[in-house]
Design brief:
By secondary structure, the chain is of the alpha/beta class. It has a single domain, classed as TIM Barrel. 40% of the residues lie in helices and 23% in strands. It has 9 helices and 11 strands. Strands 1, 2, 3, 4, 5, 6, 7, 8, 9, 10 and 11 form an 11-stranded mixed sheet that branches. The longest helix has 27 residues. The protein is globular. The chain starts with a strand and ends with a helix. The mean pLDDT is 94.
């Protein structure tokens, strides 16, 4: 099973959820060779629940995933914490929705939830918690208490950071940090635009349909991470396309308002 643990289906936090864009993203995820994704949309994105309301209306939910035309979509979200950093929470739909509702008072930067409190609320055998892009200059994780970080299930080898920091340098930093914490590493493309799918992929030895199965496979190291030979091209192309789409959406909205 090929899975990507860090993906988005909105072009940006402030943009509207667009069903046609979502459908195209899922189609391209499969075309990129993925069998599954974790949908880790930003918890403070505009109208977060519209994504899950749409999924509930249009796709069957089985065990811990939505079946989107043959692609497994595991529910999740990306949460900002008070001390700076992004944490990926992946779980069943009910847990994600319940946790989102608990985090509503923490959506604004001045009210972000403390890291330890998020861990206390999220930790469960039914939840996979991943430290997102731990060496990104704007949102590092290295400043956190190591004892708190050790409660994570894994660290994120991030496609965007492999491009911006450098493939060898970022791998060295992430794997070295993970080793000091006794944590595994999983890959996430950080896709907002479909050209980025496939830049990094986790190839699992078995097919997983529940969060406990995913956690066990990660703990047992029953997977390998593949970095695409054209990662830089994929990420650059996606970034440029994302920028153009955002500009087009802004222009369209301004014309509608005027």
């Amino acid at each position: 099973m090929n899975i990507d643990f860090h993906t988005h289906v909105k072009i940006a936090k402030k943009s509207e959820f667009m069903p046609e864009y979502f459908q195209e993203m899922m189609k391209e995820a499969k075309a990129a060779g993925l069998d599954a994704i974790a949908l880790t949309e930003h918890f403070n994105t505009r109208k977060f629940m519209e994504v899950y309301d749409y999924l509930d209306t249009h796709y069957p939910y089985e065990r811990d995933f939505y079946d989107v035309d043959g692609l497994k979509v595991f529910p999740g979200m990306e949460v900002d914490v008070k001390e700076v950093g992004h944490i990926l929470i992946i779980s069943n739909r009910k847990t994600i929705v319940d946790l989102f509702n608990e985090l509503v008072p923490h959506l604004e930067e001045e009210n972000f939830i403390p890291f330890k409190e998020l861990l206390d609320r999220a930790q469960s055998s039914e939840t996979l918690i991943i430290g997102g892009h731990p060496f990104r200059p704007s949102t590092p994780l290295t400043q956190h208490d190591p004892n708190a970080l050790k409660q994570l299930d894994a660290l994120d080898l991030n496609g965007k950071d492999l491009h911006s920091i450098g493939i060898e340098e970022n791998q060295e930093k992430v794997y070295g940090f993970a080793e000091t914490l006794g944590l595994p590493v999983v890959a996430g493309s950080d896709t907002h635009q479909f050209l980025q799918y496939g830049s990094v992929v986790n190839q699992f030895q078995k097919n997983c349909s529940t969060i406990p199965e995913l956690k066990q496979a990660i703990r047992s190291n029953e997977y390998t991470i593949h970095i695409s030979s054209d990662l830089h091209l994929r990420v650059r192309s996606a970034a440029l396309t994302k920028k153009l789409i955002k500009k087009l959406l802004k222009t369209t909205n301004e014309l509608i308002v005027s």
